Amino acid sequence: MYVELKQIEKSYGSYKASENINVGIEKGKLAALLGPSGSGKTTILRMIAGLETPESGDIMINGVRVNDIPPAQRGIGFVFQNYALFRYMTVYENLAFGLEIQKMPKKQIRERIGELMELTSLKGLEKRYPNQLSGGQRQRVAFARALAPSPSLLLLDEPFAAIDAKVRSELRIWLRDMIHKVGITSIFVTHDQDEAVEVADEIIITNKGRIEQTASPLEIYKKPETPFVAEFIGQSSKIQEYHQLKGFEKGNYKGAIIRPEFVECFKGDNLKFQDVMDYSEEGIIEDISFRGNYLEVKLRVGNMVLTTHRSLERRPVEIGETMHVIVYRMYVYDEKRAYLLENKQLMGKEIVTF
């Protein structure tokens, strides 16, 4: 592992910001620290950077314990949420600042900045000031400035938070491709799960100062290990009386989490679903929300409210309409773990959905 945190503890008074943190990130990987506000993700990032000091445990970078090494000597580039660009310096001067402190020769500075301007698609903007740039351009300058000293590790604190939605989406793809092109090990903090799934090679889920799960985006989504991850990732309905649904038996679980893609609703005259009609529940549509390329439909089934997604190509539905509802699978959970539970009555059945 290129970056390792071993048994890290950190508190602020009575608040436990990091509790027994153990995690490793491979060289060249782009990892996301993902969690709700107050979950401890930014504290982890700042401890790696040397801006905070753990009370116990070891922080290792490329096999070297860095707990007592000053931030400037850790070989880290840092991209802040608010860019932190010098307002009265041009783009060129912002990029050159750190290199001049290192006393790099002017010729090498010009060459390095030329490489960075090309790499980050900023060529031609050298003489502009930050207030003459768009939000996306400013973020690219911040990224280029962090890369200027050729750090061995790049840290980014919610790098897209101050950018509008359209530019944010474009920058996500740009950042992922750029980091893989440069080959630098990188860690970024975010509370946006779509951002983490789209950008990261690996996601580290944080909650109440602890790490809940570390895995690839696909594995995190399909195989959540804890109740928190199962509920936090994706869009979910949390229910207790899951065994009241056809095809599910009551086990030694506290409840269940059902995602929209686990639910199908249809009318009785739909021939595609005739083979599974007997396994369906009766549900009443309580709400319909337009989500751009699909409808989000909320249905009341007994004392439960479930959510499903419905293609715009299918027959329109209305609030108050009675539908047949099928739940294919769900995540059930106990105190510590989450488990995938399949609908026994539907196993082996082929069902056309969405």
Question: What can you tell me about this protein's structure?
Answer:
With 354 residues, the protein is of the alpha+beta class. The chain has two domains: 3-223, Rossmann fold (3-Layer(aba) Sandwich), CATH 3.40.50.300; 235-346, OB fold (Dihydrolipoamide Acetyltransferase, E2P), CATH 2.40.50. It is 24% helix and 32% strand. It has helices at residues 41-49, 91-101, 106-119, 135-147, 165-182, 193-199, 217-222, 227-232; strands at residues 3-12, 15-25, 30-34, 56-61, 64-65, 76-79, 153-157, 185-190, 202-207, 210-215, 237-239, 255-258, 263-266, 281-290, 294-301, 304-311, 322-327, 329-333, 338-342. Strands 6-7-8-3-9-10 form a six-stranded mixed sheet, sandwiched between helices. It has a five-stranded antiparallel sheet with strand order 13-17-14-15-16, with no helix packed on it. A four-stranded antiparallel sheet has the order 2-1-4-5, with helices on one face. A hairpin with a 2-residue loop joins strand 4 (56-61) and strand 5 (64-65). Helix 2 packs across helix 3 and helix 2 (91-101) packs parallel to helix 4 (135-147). The longest helix has 18 residues, at 165-182. It is elongated, with a radius of gyration of 25 Å. The two termini are 42 Å apart. The mean pLDDT is 90.
